[in-house]
Design a protein that fits this description.
Number of strands of chain B: 20
Structural class of chain A: mainly alpha
Largest sheet of chain A: none
Shape of chain B: globular
Order of helices and strands of chain A: HHHHHHHHH
Helix content of chain B: 10-25%
Largest interface: A-B, 41 and 33 residues
Helix content of chain A: over 70%
Structural class of chain B: alpha+beta
Oligomer: heterodimer
Chain lengths: ~170, ~425
Amino acid sequence: VPTDRPPFEDLYRDFLGRIYAYVRAQVTSSADAEDITAQVFMNAFQAYPRFETRNTTPAAWLFRIARNATLDHFRAHGRRERLQRTVEHQPLDEHDPAGMAEDRIRYQALLTYVARLPERQRDAISLRHSGLTFEEVGVLMKCTEDAAKMLYHRALKVLRESVKEEMP
Amino acid sequence: VSDEEDRELQALQRQLDDAFQTTRPRGGFEDELWARMQARRPWWQRVQAAFATLIGGVRRIPPAPAATVAVLLVLVISIGLLGSLGHRGGGASSTAGLSEGAQPGGAQTHFNPVAGGFGQLPSPVLGPGPGAADMNPPKEAGVRSPAASAAATPYFGPADLVWADELNVPISEVPVFRYMEPSAQDANRFATSVGAAAQSGQPGPGVLGSYSAPDFTLTVASSTQSPKREPSYILTPKAGSSAAGAAAADAAAAYLRSHGLMPTWQATVIVEQAGDIVRVRYLREFAVPGSGSAFLIDSLGERYGLEVDLSGSAVVQVVGPMPIAMDTALYRITSSGQAVQSALASGASGGGGITPTPTVRLTSAEIVYSLVWAGDHSFYEPAYLFSGTFTSNGVTYVKRVLVPAVDPSQRSS
């Protein structure tokens, strides 16, 4: 392992929680979030020997893997169910009352609204509040830094309206 | 944007920050996942990680001494009936009676006719060991095993164990092997024997030397306790060495032969696919006179030995035990009845576990060898490995119990 690359264990400890939170804001259950997070770090672990710090930051690299893994999850499980929930505004995790209560304490309700945003808006919010810079968000979303900022602020307003509607 | 709207958006941003910062996986997930990742990667990567700061660094070591490559005498231990005490599944494999003969690095096995000649022995164990928390299975949960047994997850927590089969061991004595920890000079001799010269630079702790040859680099590490590993080498071709068209096992064998690295010990060869890498594994076996041979296992109970990684038909890495001279002594074996009793009494070799405590029917037992570190020397000790599977919450686990095969009167722990 080249000396300019931090030990993978450091990345794991620094980013596990952030990646999990990012994924959790995208999917409908904590079990799915765990599965995807595990896949993210398994993939990252395997690919780490090829990771080049001069090309990207560890955060951007990991969140790219997380984003792809989440998209793979949606592709594999279909978005229909999720979209149905969105349309019906069903609460998430209703099969797990204990976990739901805990999640609520942890702002799960707010993340639920984030999960209902259109995909790019949801991504912009999630990536930004997972600690990425707008530049990194832009790179991941294949747009400029300014476009990422605009997308984020638009998403923020949509989110505010959603929250207002249901939690006046 | 009005001031009020601005304040609302700022408040929402703060809530989002809080939401993302406080949304974390359940307790234990971090440790479980890390252990799964550790368990999935090959042992040599764990060794590499242990020496991560050393293996890529600049080293200054004296040039290798003039080549004094010993022509090795390897006493061939007769391989008789394989005393499979139960099932010995191993996947698609071919048994390679890896030939005895000259071996780089000075490996030689000496028989010591005196029973119990090494004195009292420390006992082999499975699962987490002292100081091995980050390298071993988690204490409270199962971990995903390497690809060889990906269907079941090793479980080291408490269990109510049942054994209903018969266990007959047709021998009264069993060999124990001992090696002394090699020096940097030993590593130099090994490197020279395979055509590598010392690189400049000072090896750090745990690394015996770093070497370079025209077509590969070589790092030799001393024994490690966590993970338990004998002195090992990591050979990395500078460019993929290709044997176009050859099957992976044949390409691996050809590479080992051409570099004088074909092991002299008996092994079963299996081929695995790990991502885009094909891994040819030589699972090491030890001869047990009168009972056949027994696989070498690691602290997870997985068989191991030497591994050759190929990408396409090109060898990209070889990792294996450094050839080392060993002494042998015979020890009285624990009776099969005692072994079963000990297995059933050892409900757990780790802490924590699944709730409620699972009941596991042990369905197989075999003699295996396990590395036991003892300071400036180490032992390969025989043990009974019992195993059985169970399912909890839809996950299939394998419970393994290791019982030292050396009679308790000749053990120090």
